[in-house]
Structures are given as C-alpha cells and as structure tokens.
Amino acid sequence: MGVRGVSKEVRQKDRVIIRFAGDSGDGMQLTGDRFTSETAELGNDLSTLPDFPAEIRAPAGTLPGVSAFQLHFADHDVMTPGDRPDVLVAMNPAALKANIGDLPAGADVIVNTDEFTPRALAKVGYAANPLEDDSLSAYQVHAIPLTSLTVKALETFEISRKDAERAKNMFALGLLSWLYHRPVESTLAFLQRKFAAAPELARANVTASNAGWNFGETTEAFTVRYEVKPAVMPPGLYRNITGNIALAYGLIASSQRSGLPLFLGSYPITPASDILHELSKHKRFGVRTFQAEDEIAGVGAALGAAFGGAIGVTTTSGPGVDLKSETIGLAVTLELPLVVCDIQRAGPSTGMPTKAEQSDLLLAMFGRHGEAPVPIVAPLSPSDCFDAAIEAVRIALKYRTPVFLLSDAYLANGSEPWLLPDVASLPDLRVEFATEPNHTKADGTAEFWPYLRDPETLARPWAVPGTAGLEHRVGGIEKADGSGNISYDPSNHDTMVRLRQAKIDGIVRDIPPLAVDDPTGDAEVLVLGWGSTYGPIGAAVRLVRESGAKVAQAHLRHLNPLPANTGDVLRAYRRVLIPEMNLGQLALLIRARYLVDAISYTQVRGMPFKSDELVDALRDVIDT
Amino acid sequence: MTIPEPRNGMSLVPAADAKATKKEFTSDQEVRWCPGCGDYAILAAMQSFLPELGLRRENVVCISGIGCAARFPYYLNTYGMHSIHGRAPAIATGLATSRPDLSVWVVGGDGDFMSIGGNHLIHALRRNVNLKLLMFNNRIYGLTKGQYSPTSEVGKLTKSTPYGSIDFPFNPVSLALGAEATFVARTIDSDRKHLTSVLRAAAEHRGAAFVEILQNCDIFNDGAFDLLKKPETRDTAVVRLEHGQPVRFGVDGQKGVRLSPQGGLDVVDVAAVGEDALLVHDAHAPEPATAFMLSRLGNVDDGVTPVGVLRSVERPTYDDQVRRQIDDAVATSGPGDLAALLASGDTWTIS
Fold first, then answer.
1. Please, which residues 497-536 of chain A have a Cβ atom closer than 8 Å to chain B?
2. Helices B38-52, B192-204: inter-axial angle, 10-degree rounding
3. 3-state secondary structure of A599
4. Of A19, B154, B248, B251, which is most buried with the most CB atoms under 10 A?
5. CA-based nearest distance B30→chain A, Å
6. How far is B339 from chain A (nearest CA, A)?
7. Which of B84, B339, B347 lies at the smallest CB-CB distance from A476?
8. Residue A566 pairs with which residues in a beta bridge?
C-alpha cells in the first residue's frame, strides 16, 4: 500500500492486545482470524482467544449475543492472549457494554456509531448514549460510522444492501491493518477464495477492506499509526494453528508413524466438533471418521476398530465422557488401545459449552466403576496439542490401554504460531501384532493366551482378527491371568486388579521427569500447573521475576501416572501453589499422593486466568 | 457417488483352504446355559453352519452384549468379544467399517437389541453396515432372573410386574422394517433346518441383516412359543414366507393371505378364493410396505406368526462407501503427505 494523504506519526510498540467484539452474526471470529494471519505473516509472536456464545445467532444486539476475538501480538515471546485489551473494536452498544470493563484507562475504543441508535442503546440498558456523555472519557474513543462508510464505498456494486452492510467487518479489518501496519495481501487472496462463487461479493469485500485502510490513511480520527516489530523466534517454517487442528494433525501423524489406520468414532459436541470436521477431510491418509448415533456408539465403534488393529479414537467433551465411561471401563479390562480426547468445557451438565474449564481431571482419573486406571496426558498450549496427541497414542499402543487426552475450550479454539516439526523426527510408534501362539498346553500343543503379558510393560499381546491360530475371546467378565478364560476365582481377581494398576503405574518409567524452571535455584515457592494454565502461569512467573522476587515453575504433561520425581520436586520448596480452572482437583491429588500442603488457587469463570491475578496470588504466597 | 456393485456379504472375506468342521468352530469352553435352554439349539446350528460358509475361521468375529445370549462368543472358536449391554452393534460397526475382510456377527437378546441398545440397532440397520445381527428373543430378562422385557406381552406376570406388565411390546420385525433395514427375517430356535436357511441368507446378504430367533427360556418364560412348536397348533400358527411363493399356511395350506381391497391383508380360505388371488411374497420389493403388513399379521400371541425372510433388498453398505471414499481420494489426489499437511494454509519462514 502506498502512502496517501497526510503523513501520520508512527510509534513503536513492543506488544498490543486487540479485542474485536460484535454481534454473533457480525463476523468477528473471521475478522480476528484474518488479523491473526496477517500478524503471523509479519512475524510477531501471538496468542489468540476466541470467546463466543453457545447460541448460533443469539438475539441481535443483546449482551448474550456478543461474540469476541482477542489477539495479543508482540515483538517478543507471547504466553497468553493478554489480560486487558489496548484496543477494543465494538461493532454495537452491546459489544461496548460487555467489554468496556476489561479495558485499562487510555485504551483505544473504535465504535461503529451507526449501531448506536436509541433502540439498540435501550436494548442493553444504556439510558444515555455513552458516546455523547463523558462516561468514556478515560479512553481514546474513535467514533466511526463503519456501516454507512462501508455501504457508501460499495454503492456502485450490484449487491444487496444487506450484503454491503455485512462487509463492515472487512472495513474494520482494513482500518486495523492500516493502524498496525499489517500486510493485507493474504486477506485479499482469502476473500477471493471465500467468495470464488460470487465474484461481485469478492470484489465488494476487497473494496471494503481497502476502504477501511484508506479511511485510516485520510481521516483525522487517527493521528498515530503503530508498528510492532517481528519477534525473534527460532528459524524455520511456521504456521498459525488452533488446538483442535493441532490435535487432529497429531492423530494423523500418529497413524503415519505407526503404520496403523486411524479410526475416529465421534458425536458432535462443543468444543470438540472441529476435530471431527478436520479429520473427516483427510481421507487420503486413510482416516475413517464415523459420526455415530450417540457418544456411546462413538467410543464403542472406536473400540471395535481397535480390536481390529486400528488406532481407535473418540473425541468429546465432559457430557460425552459421562456417557462413554462404561465403554472406557470395558477398554480397561479388554486391554486394547483407545484414545479419549476430552475437550473440557464449563460444567456440570450442559454448563457453559463454549467456555473453558479444567474440571474433568478427577472424572478422567476416577470416573468409572471398579478399579479402572487410565493414563492421562494434557497439552499446555494450542500447538502442543499436536505433541500431546502423539504421546497419548504412543502410550495407548504400547500399553494396550485407553488414554485420556485432556484439552479444553481455550486450547481448542485459541491459536499461536507453530514451528513445524520435522516429520522424520517424530516418535516411531510402530507396534507388533501377535502372530504366533505363546503358550504350550500340557499335551504339548501350542495355543494362544491373550492375557500373557510382556514382563516389562505388562501389556498383553494384540492379536487382531484374521490371524490364524490366535483365535480368542475377550470380554468384560474377569479373566484368568494368562489364559484370559472367564474366571470368578477370588484370588485371580485380586491379581488381575493389581496387574492392571501396576501396568498403568509402570508407565512412570517411560515418561520424562518433571522439569522445574528455577533460574536461580533458590526459589522457595513452586507454582505447579497442568494443561492450558501454562501460558498465564508463565506470564505471571515472568512478571514476578521481573519485580525481583523468586519463584519456580513446573508444569505436568502426564497426570496419570505422575512423573517419578514429582514428590521430590514438591518437597524441595517451602510452599507450593497450584492454580487451576476448577475447585482444586490437581491439588487434591497432590495432597493425597504426596502429603504436601499445596495451596490451591482456583477460578471457574470460563476464561483463562489473567496474569495479573496470578501475580497477586504468587506474591501472597511468596510473602507469607 | 459411485454405488458399489452389490456383492455377497462374504465376498471380501478370505476363503478357507479346506472345509472346516463343527469341532473346529467349537471352543474348549464349558457351555453354561441352563439345561434345556433354546440357546443350545442355536449354538449347535451355528457351529455346524459356519463351517459350511467356507470362510477362514480366523476371519469370523462374533460380538455380543450382555445377557444369556451374549455368552455366545465364548463357545465359538473364532475371534470374539463379549462387550457391554446393548453396545455390540456399535462396536461391531467400528470393526466392520475398518476391516472388510471379516465376517462380523452380532449376538444379543431382546434386552440388548430392543431395550438398552435399541438406538444402536436402528442406526446400524439404516446405515446398512455389513453385520449379521442375531436377536435371540425369549421375551424375558433371564440373566437378571426374570423381569419382563420390551417384547413381553401386556399383562405378563414377572418379578417386576406382579400386577401384570402394562408396557406395550415391540414387534421386532416391524421395528427393523421401520428402521430401513435391508434384510429382515424371523426364525425359531427348534427348527434347525429353517434356522440354518435363514442364517445362510443373512450371511450372503451384503449389508445389515437382522434375524429374530424365537428362543425358549425354560426357566423364566417356558413355553412362550409352544403355539409355534406343538404339532397340533404349529401349522395354523406359523406362516412360512418364501420369496416368489403365494403366502399359505394352515393344515395342508388351507389358509392364505390376500391383499385387502381396503388396504392391509386379509386371511382367507384358499378354497374359497383360489390360489391365484393370494399375495405372492416378494422379499426383494423395493418398498417395505407389504413386508410391514406381513409383519403385522400377528406376533406370537395372536396365534399367527410369519417366519422366513420378510425383506432382502440391495443398498450400498456404509462400510463399502467409507472405503470407496478413501480409495477415491487416494486415486484422485494420491496418498496423504504428512509434511505437506502440516504446512498447509498460510505459512511463513523465519531465517
């Protein structure tokens, strides 16, 4: 873009947090996604947080209908989507009202004045127009008629007025792209692709975006532009990725690295459905996706596929896990590989389906009848969902066990730049199916014992149908140790319960020790986390250290079994703080297992922790 | 979408090198049903019949749910899974969809298929997964010791209905027809010849084949099907349906079934109307309406029970189409390239 009109002052910033907010139908998620792509292309580090209602189209102009997308980008390493936006784009009064409280004084507020009608104001309880009184005096308000400017820019196009109005998000995007020096070429190309079937609409949206850019250039409403220089990041090829897509790719990678076909049995549920959508595209990789009649059938089909030698996976959220529990218990006793991806959301019951929570940890640990241990793996960032998925499959295949992968709504929909891994360096997940009998009968003939275990891993042989001579039956009834025949013998049951537990406990020898980040080595307080709190905890730890205090940080990838050195790590610190987006579920496990007087710090607002509040919580512990 | 050529239900399952014996299909496990249970007859028929299919034994899989009938896999020397109550059709769907080289049999009772797993049954039927679903219907819950089932007659006195059952029962054949099943049949545990012929037709059908097997529980519901079994009543109670044949029953085929001018079916005396007036059974009729009417002729208690293959039509199977989509994608665009997948979309390089 050439520079036209008045030249503007350019200021350097090291980081910016922008929140786009509007009605559910205003296209805020798309606008945020595009701004994110432009930002990634420029080379900033970034982290995003989409925040949208469960309703597809909540009543227009209402507070519950507000959909928002927050983006934090910087010239340095970014750990969270940011606490408080520097810029709010509010497409209507509801978006302003719902978000203004999160802004620090001095923040820029760009509002679409066309939507500030008496009726729209009244709908959200504004007695007076906040643009006309002094209620926004703490902020830099840019009052812009985004809708009418867009419609005017598109008046020569052969499109409906409604379509012209809908392009206002592209006008806003063009304006913000100008304001922050974002490269817009990829967005223009995207619009051509998106509206390929309607060239007039494609041209209109491109024109709206250009009009927004030019408006910034010429209007006196903006006297300053900003630059955020690229971040210093390790060299390599990058893309931006959300947790759900990374998880889907991790499953495909597992299939490629194991040589086993991937079978997904799933029932649509927020916020997990995007994994089903993504995997259903990749038939070239031999991926079979089965949209089942219910959650139970989804996991059942996955288990059936595993019996046949596939990587059986089911994807769901908390309510689905409730329904799958019986089948997961069957998988525990059948000792077949199965991966259960729980994209956690706020519960109980339906709860808040689009909001994040970490409240299924104890469900994953204990949510089955009988002694039914299941390993648990948790990703710590959106891109880490790729590696966590591979790790979950690795454990499932090697130990012939169901494995829980605990992601959450924040990781699922949030995004960050991802340094693409070298495919050849990914773990080798090949497994060997049983092909020969493994036991000799008293009469000297060979036979197959499906529950004769590997002495090291305690995994049983995986003999798939079609293998001659290894025909056998498995089932939910207790099995005799070794032969696998039905057994109600009391001492055999005692043996089998302990063997199944020992197998899962033994995975501890196959996972890395808990790493501690304690730069000076003499911190007295350890903050321990798991899952998506990694970013906010890391950002808070950084702030605390910048203020001169000392704090150590450790983050759990494996929740069951816990790394072998966990107790030693915890006991090396005077105090241990465990922040969680639940009411203290990891803290309960840690206290029970290690008798460490860990301090639980919790919130269940459906949104990630703010770094500021974790800084306060850490300081409280450090100072006492 | 290309519709696969209709094939035999076993056409992708490898054939055995030599004909197997009943003994080879019999496992070494002790059979633990009550003495006199109808399940013994069904097991014996299956152990004899399966070798006749000429399939490799290791490519036959039997998956069951929970209940007396669900012990079945333990007694067949094939691959097998005794799973959880009602879920066997779902588990089998995953297996059949990923393994075209297997002959997959699902065994359960009226509790498994009609009650706790009803949802899985109807969806397996409408999808037309290449599964053989055998429902042993004894019209009672046996393993839990005698409660009424979804096929028990109204008024039945059981442990959980001391004042008589007030639950209206399912007619399993009507249910399966309503669920878009492509193959629906009914047979009787004690009629070895008929049972075997129906099982063979089910095995050969490419797609979901639902077979209701009326099975006596001599402990909790003894004699439930006596009307269909006793020499003095069976001829008038059992309507044997054969494709292409007029529907006749009764002693010496005195009775017949005719399409009623008012819609529906009439039971008529053949001597009065002549054989040409009778309905000729067409199991391959594209629409299930006539088969449904036949299923409504009666349901055990009414004294008239149709048996045989009520419906057998060709429709692409779910599992074949899943494989076809994968094959087409690979043929069109080549096998997936993981590195290219990861690098799809907008990327940038930092040097």
1. none
2. 50
3. strand
4. A19
5. 10
6. 6
7. B84
8. none
> What does the alpha-carbon distance between residue A333 and residue A345 come to, in Å, rounded to a whole number?
28
In chain A, what residues touch B326 (CB-CB under 8 Å)? 283-284, 286-288
What is the chain B residue with the closest CA to A463? B79
How much is the ipTM here?
0.97
**CB neighbours (10 Å) of residue A30?**
16
Mean pLDDT to the nearest integer, B297-319: 91
Residue A559's closest CA among A312, A391, A381?
A: A391
Q: Does A41 touch chain B (CB under 8 A)?
A: yes
Determine the straight-line distance between the first and last CA of chain B, rounded to whole angstroms: 46
Task: Kindly report, residue by residue over A113-167, the tens digit of the pLDDT.
Answer: 999 999 999 999 999 999 999 999 999 999 999 999 999 999 999 999 999 999 9
Test B82 with A473 for CB contact under 8 angstroms: yes
* Chain A closest-CA separation from residue B168 CA (Å): 25
Quote the pTM value: 0.95
Q: What is the pLDDT of residue B231?
A: 94
Closest to A516 in 3D by CA, of A550, A566, A561? A566
A235 in contact with chain B, both atoms CB, cutoff 8 A: yes
- Tell me if chain B has a CB within 8 Å of the CB of A178: no
Distance in angstroms (rounded) separating the CA atoms of residues B250 and B245: 15
Answer for the pair A427, A394: CB distance below 8 angstroms, yes or no: yes
* Confidence tier at B5 by pLDDT (50, 70, 90): low
Q: Residue B1: which pLDDT band, with cuts at 50, 70 and 90? A: very low
> Are A102 and A81 spatial neighbours (Cβ–Cβ below 8 Å)?
no
Give CA–CA dist B48/B75, Å, rounded.
13
Give me A15's structure tokens.
Answer: 């980081």
Give kind and range of the element (H or E) at residue A315.
strand A311-316
Total residue length of chain A: 624
Query: What is the average pLDDT score of chain B?
Result: 95
Q: How many residues are recorded in chain B? A: 351
Query: Which of B91, B97, B339 is opposite residue A303, by nearest beta carbon?
Result: B91
The model's confidence at residue B6, banded by pLDDT at 50, 70 and 90, is: low
Identify the pLDDT of residue B303.
75
Contact A301 B97 (CB under 8 A): yes
Q: What are the chain B neighbours of A235 within 8 Å (beta carbons)?
A: 349-351
Q: List pLDDT tens digits, range A316-332.
A: 999 999 999 999 999 99
H helix or E strand, kind and range, residue A116: none
